[in-house]
Specification:
globular, Aminopeptidase
């Protein structure tokens, strides 16, 4: 658990003792990761090759105050064919700039779900972010969902 994200203090993570940190992990993170790992195991047992999609939001401004130009960003290790295909498909289906590891890349040791639940176990994964201001207006939801659904569908069909 980190105390900051993009230089912004996370109030709930401040001044936690080790037992408090462990309790929060067991109550919040552990069930989440257990569900992902159970799902992956079920897919593999059924003879299927699962893929993990991890969705995040990102601030419209960086910690230095600079406005983020990207509406979406795909974070990946530069080798993954699935992420590359998704990024290409998303760029073809949106008017927003789609960042390629911008302003940061998928980082082992910083990011957890994709590296630990997918990459470490040879599972294909896509990690992307949506700029938070694009998620604020419910009238825009159908368009954002359509952009992402078309890109994901195109990615799955192409791989």
């Amino acid at each position: 658990m980190t105390n900051t994200s993009d230089s912004v203090q996370i109030n709930g993570n401040q001044n936690l003792t080790l037992p408090e940190r462990e309790r929060r992990y067991q109550e919040i993170a552990r069930p989440y990761y257990d569900q992902i790992n159970t799902w992956i195991a079920r897919k593999r047992t059924a003879g299927k090759s699962p893929a993990l999609v991890s969705v995040h939001t990102m601030a419209d401004r960086l910690s230095d105050g600079k406005i983020r130009n990207e509406g979406y960003a795909v974070l990946w290790d530069g080798q993954d064919k699935l992420s590359r295909s998704f990024m290409t498909a998303l760029r073809e289906n949106t008017d927003f700039l789609v960042g390629d590891n911008t302003p940061y890349a998928l980082e082992l040791g910083i990011d957890y779900t994709v590296p630990e639940c997918a990459l470490r176990h040879g599972i294909a994964a896509i990690m992307f972010e949506v700029r938070q201001d694009l998620t604020q207006d419910p009238d825009n939801f159908p368009r954002r969902i359509e952009e992402l659904a078309i890109a994901l569908e195109g990615t799955v069909r192409g791989n």
